[in-house]
Amino acid sequence: MIHFFKKPVSHLALPEKFTYPFHYTPHPLCVLAAEEVKEYIASRKEWQEELASGKMFGVLIVQTDNGITNNEENQIAYLAAFSGNLAGKNLHPYFVPPVYDLLQPEGFFKIEEEQISAINIRIRELENSSSYLNSKEKWKIETEQAKAVLNQAKAELKMAKEAREIRRQSSPEFSEEEQASLIRESQYQKAEYKRLEKEWKKRLEELETEVRHFDIEIERLKTERKERSAALQRKLFEQFRMLNAQGEVKDLYTIFEQTVQKVPPAGAGECALPKLLQYAYLHQLKPLAMAEFWWGDSPKNEIRHHGYYYPSCKGKCEPILQHMLQGLEVDENPLLNPVHEEEELEIVFEDEWLLVVNKPAGMLSVPGKAEDRDSVYHRLKKKYPEATGPMIVHRLDMATSGLLLVAKTKEVHRDLQAQFANRSIKKRYVAVLDGIVLSERTGSTGRIELPLCLNPLDRPRQMVSREHGKEAITEYQIISESERITSKSENTFNESNRIDELERSINESRKYTRIIFCPLTGRTHQLRVHAAHPEGLGCPILGDELYGKKADRLYLHAEYIEFRHPIYGDILCIQKEADFHKKYD
């Protein structure tokens, strides 16, 4: 399970702290390890068809002090893992084993799963049995027939009643005998209707009883299935006893009971990094750094690119890793470090009612949950203490730079938000895409309509969902395509990001597309997803570490905004060129 590097690595400095798994640049050792794992994956021809649909893999750099080493030079090695299962199995010699192998043939999971599968088969058999379907159809037909017959009988009763009334009115001197005859006729007809109604009711009840016999049994089986599934899930998650660097053990139920969802989601504990850490702790290996990469095509709703590195998922892995990383010295979340603390916020336009600022990349528009974090709102609230209302009219992603509209009064804020709501405000973004757009499929200009919603298991990522997503529309225009040669002194990734020589060589010759986006809606990460998704442009924005590859920044800038002044009624057109506008011409 422990792999030693094919080439010497003693010249590479070891990481000072363990990787922060939700926001990182792969350490050079991780890049080397990942390349060796990719070579191994490519050599397994029997997996290629399955892997074409996509799978996440991970590497963990470890240090061993127990004498297991490939030579006397160092004790640095790596472990490899895959998420979920591969080729119908959890166990493969090259990769670390799962925390718990739920696919073992004699294990309780497989045995109980077979029982639940048998219940599913029985439910399907009952739901599709000819006796059940025929009974339902007969009940449906005869219910409609009863309705028609009884409605007809009611109509005849009404007509007979009207006829008797006409006879009474036409002969006001009816004898008592004639009156009694009409009454007897009415009573007889009503009795006949009641008899008919009773016959049909009895007939339908018999048919309904036949149907209910099946429904009750189907419902009983579904209840049993639900109870057994819940019990199985609980028992399964109790087998996932996760270690941390301090030697403490917690099962998944204990870990997740402190979260909002309370119950572990399906697949929890089966991702690559928890497997890697568990194996390292069990075998007294010191974790030094990690990286996870995608192999194969992108999933239908999410965005993944072959060979790209990705952070660990939030929904399934964050609670687990918060426990498993205890006892390790972990890198700080780089998003928490203020990068513009000493810089003055640039004001592009201002009058007594509103202003437009040029938000730098890496600064929040609003503080969010962390109230003390640096943001445009904090800066302006301090600069304009007399301002009323929320001030920030719309938002830009933290990683996006550009024009941000700010109101000094709540009345102006309300007016500007109304303009956004009715789509009268025009916005234009400029971006650099990490690659060449397939123009024969998309065209140099076009319109993307992919509905978006939050990925609940991987916040803050958004996903395309035609079932749950909200309308998201983007118009675009490709400005230019170019190939830029990256030199050591001028490369997309700076030295502080620790990209090693191998990673740099991979990125030395890259193609780029300069593009304009005009969003007609304002969904979270709309432009980023529409650029990266295979059904969009299929080409992520340069520096988009959520949907593409990390760079020195996200190359997305809001360069133009047009709106009606809430007080004067004038149309204001404000533009601010991106600081990278000449870099990729």
What does the secondary structure layout of this molecule look like, with pairings?
Layout: H1 28-43, H2 48-51, E1 55-64, E2 76-82, H3 108-128, H4 130-170, H5 176-239, E3 241-243, E4 249-251, H6 252-256, H7 272-282, E5 285-295, E6 309-310, H8 314-324, E7 346-350, E8 354-359, H9 376-383, E9 401-407, H10 410-421, E10 426-433, H11 439-442, E11 445-449, E12 452-454, E13 462-464, E14 473-485, H12 501-506, E15 509-519, H13 526-532, E16 556-564, E17 571-575
Parallel strand pairs: 9-16
Antiparallel strand pairs: 1-2, 1-5, 3-4, 5-6, 7-8, 8-9, 10-15, 10-16, 11-14, 12-13, 14-15, 16-17
Question: What does it look like?
Answer:
This protein is an alpha+beta fold. The chain has helices spanning 28-43, 48-51, 108-128, 130-170, 176-239, 252-256, 272-282, 314-324, 376-383, 410-421, 439-442, 501-506, 526-532, and strands at residues 55-64, 76-82, 241-243, 249-251, 285-295, 309-310, 346-350, 354-359, 401-407, 426-433, 445-449, 452-454, 462-464, 473-485, 509-519, 556-564, 571-575. The strands form four sheets. Strands 7, 8, 9, 10, 11, 14, 15, 16 and 17 form a nine-stranded mixed beta sheet that branches. It has a four-stranded antiparallel beta sheet with strand order 2-1-5-6, sandwiched between helices. Helix 3 runs antiparallel to helix 5 (176-239) and helix 7 runs parallel beside helix 8. It is extended, with a radius of gyration of 34 Å. Mean pLDDT is 88; it is low at 67-73 and 485-508.
